[in-house]
Write a structure and sequence with these properties.
mainly beta; eight-stranded antiparallel beta sheet; seven-stranded antiparallel beta sheet; 15 strands
Amino acid sequence: MKKRFGRVLLGVAVLAAWAGITVVPASASGILYFQNPDYNGAYSSQNDTVGGLGNFATAYDNFTLTGNYNITSVEWIGSYFNPPNQGTITGWTLNFYADNSGTPGALLYSTGDVAGNASEAFLQNDNAGDPTYLYGLNTAFFAANGTQYWLSVVPDLGFPPQWGWETATGGDGASYQCFLGTCGAQPNDLSFALFGNAAAAVPEPSSVLLVATALVALNLLVRKNLF
């Protein structure tokens, strides 16, 4: 369920190219992909740790990289609403999924439940007057060239307030959300950035088997002094 207003205002991509604003440790990693916030609202994504609702909402967004990369960290922007007061986040779960015909598929990687608020840092109020924050976590996910993946971020946060993933520009204009058991496509990008470095392609299973077979044969030849 998207947070909605009486009218939608045009937003401005304030963090152009995620310009120099980071909350994860600086390293040799460079920016691989980003969708800039437009501050026009947020999609609920939350694990209620107080009111008994549990993981009642999860928002997802898709991405595709043009190269093989190790994603070493992720940053995202979200807001508090209903009411618009800063809550106390006690943990985060960040997941990467395979694509399943244009929807999130099998889980490929999870940070698990990481304690803390992911270095929550205030940015500004969005167009509804709700406070937005920047977050970041380190990851260890290999993304293959030209392959579509899905990302989700879910905070551990007692309701109220609600937490939502802020909308963005720069992607394909679509995301996905499950809210109280109902799942479906949504007509907005969500705000996040991926950081990492180039990686070698992962060999196909058949190639790995061929190399292993060759090494076994070579070992036998050496043992028989035929090499």
